[in-house]
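Below is a concrete protein record.
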Amino acid sequence: MTHNVALVLGGGGAGGNAWTIGIIAGLAEAGLDLTEAADLVIGTSSGATAAAYVRSGMSPAELLESVLAERAQTVGQNRERPSSVPPPVSMARVFERMRAIGAAAESAVDLRRAMGAFGLESDAILGPAAATQRRAIVAARLPRPEWPDKPMIVVAVDAHTGELAAFDRNSGVELADAITASTALPGVAPTHRINGAHYMNGGVRSSDNADLAVGYANVVVLSPLGGRSGPLPDGQFEGLRRAPEWGTDLASQVEALRAQGSHVVVITPDADSRAALGTNQMDPSTRIPAARAGFAQGKSEATRVSLV
């Protein structure tokens, strides 16, 4: 193996983002600081925002404190989009549309292109100002505006072609643009235009995109959605089919990494963390309880995360 440690941060809404930070702080409390150990951090959707914090130079304890210090927000407001830009339809209908797209798709490419069409269709309803407003809010929430010196990948998907976009500091794309694209959930937020192309949430390809860690001896995956395939409880935005035969589900990606020699550890929410996350991980009111539950879980998981 050429590289040592890749840290994969999956998507999972506002609550999943906070749970991820809690896990990282808990692992550090128990003696494993992944903010220092990771040679590469890969972030998808809310995991992309978490990646920016992990690479910010803040200590794990400071990362956790940044979540716990947040003022409780109104239930129903989505941390991943500006409250002044409402979704074109109710969230229940957005979830329903996603599930319908997943059920009709015959391949991973079909699914991504259909989701892209949904996102582009929603752009017309949201209006041109929505994208500008959302980019400004994403940029304001970043711990620092520039790409970190240490390697980091932010995952998005081309809304026109369904192709993977793996942005990094050498892509010629500003960090705020990359994360705005990675967190642009079709039907909820506008697609994000970069160099003439429109991009959408990286979770449309895979909630975790762990396959991008190929070539690393150790891969640690923090998956707020638990790598589940098929519909999630009502209120979850990842209600898309993840057929194992497509190779886009987490289990298939982990199997492929292990077949190539990687030591892979996957951490998903335990019972207490699932209770803290509730049935709507997009709800900002889950952030503080999810971070606390993640911190406790991280301390207990440390003995399982051995690095070779």
Observations:
- The first strand starts at residue 3 and ends at 9.
- Residues 275 and 290 are 9 Å apart (CA to CA).
